[in-house]
Amino acid sequence: MLINCGDVWKVPEINQRIMMFRIIYSLPFALAVFLSVAIAQAQSKVNHAMHSDLVQGKGLAAEFHSDLGIEKHVKVVFSEDFEKPGFEKRWRDVRNKGKAVLKIVSSNEVQAPMGQHSLQVTSDLKRNTGGGLTTWFDSADRVFIRFYVKFHKEGDYIHHFCTLRANKALHGSDAWSGFGGAGLKPEGDERFSTALEPWGDWGRNTPPGKWNFYSYWHEMKPSRDGKYWGNAFRSDDQALIEKNQWICAEFMLKHNTPGQPDGEQAWWIDGKLIGHWKGINWRKSADLMANAFTLETYITDRWTKQPFNRVWFDNVVIAHEYIGPSGK
């Protein structure tokens, strides 16, 4: 019902005024949204490691000599030192073609960083693409993954390495929603992933290369071929990966508020923070959590030319708090 206060109000005029009101007063909001998205996108490309407030050096592992008993820490959700027999039963998925890829070796063979045994992964270009292990775990706002790794002195380039994946569930078919999808952009409610990998820079870095993140999420950028291959997060301030020595590698993912660009990721080498990125909108749904970790070496003949490639892993820990190098 319209009230006449001396003049006759016409419905079209009222609608026009309402429309103008909405446009004028929505402009600041729209501008704020645009600026927040632009700032977040710019942040996601900037390495904040130099001025980061993330902890470095000692972490929760410093309390445990050679990681002994670390699984009892309240923030630890998974640990594996490859000392006890039957390691395959402690990982839910095992990729070990012909039982010729994964092998437990003694410290006499590889000089384990601690303990008496390590996991050896041998890739054979003629017979396989390598192999690895995957575990699912209870997630949290922040997930930290630490492992020790050693590259053979004659090792070549590696196509894919150690990957953290977000799945819709821990069990059933939804536990695999974060797997696959190479070349495709995620929708935002079914998967995202990030992998800490050696990067060869198209043959310019001496193998295995330099560390970088290889990430898939629903706001990733397309490649030149129009497909969505993993986007890279790289640190210019780092040396080549050393071969034939044990390295303590750790990376962290912070979940974003669903739909908001407040997620993060970072990595440390031997307790030193090398890369830290902010402003990442990993997901649209709160049900999607980073809850599966794959420890692997995956090679292809595109860049790898050595027929045999060997990598050793040890002392894997997944926690909801910074882990750091093992206590000595």
Describe the 3D structure:
The protein has 328 residues and is mostly beta strands. It has one domain: Jelly Rolls (Sandwich), CATH 2.60.120. 12% of the residues lie in helices and 33% in strands. Strands 1, 3, 4, 6, 11, 12, 13 and 15 form an eight-stranded antiparallel sheet that branches. The chain has a seven-stranded antiparallel sheet with strand order 2-5-14-7-8-9-10, with no helix packed on it. Strand 12 and strand 13 form a beta hairpin. The chain is globular and about 50 Å long. The N and C termini lie far apart (81 Å).
Indicate the CATH topology.
Answer: Jelly Rolls
In total, the number of strands is: 15
Described by strand count, sense and barrel closure, the largest sheet is: 8 strands, antiparallel
Name the shape in a single word.
globular
Termini gap: 81 Å
- Output the radius of gyration: 24 Å
CATH class: Mainly Beta
Overall average residue pLDDT: 89
Structural class per helix/strand content? mainly beta
Poorly predicted tracts of residues: 1-14, 29-41
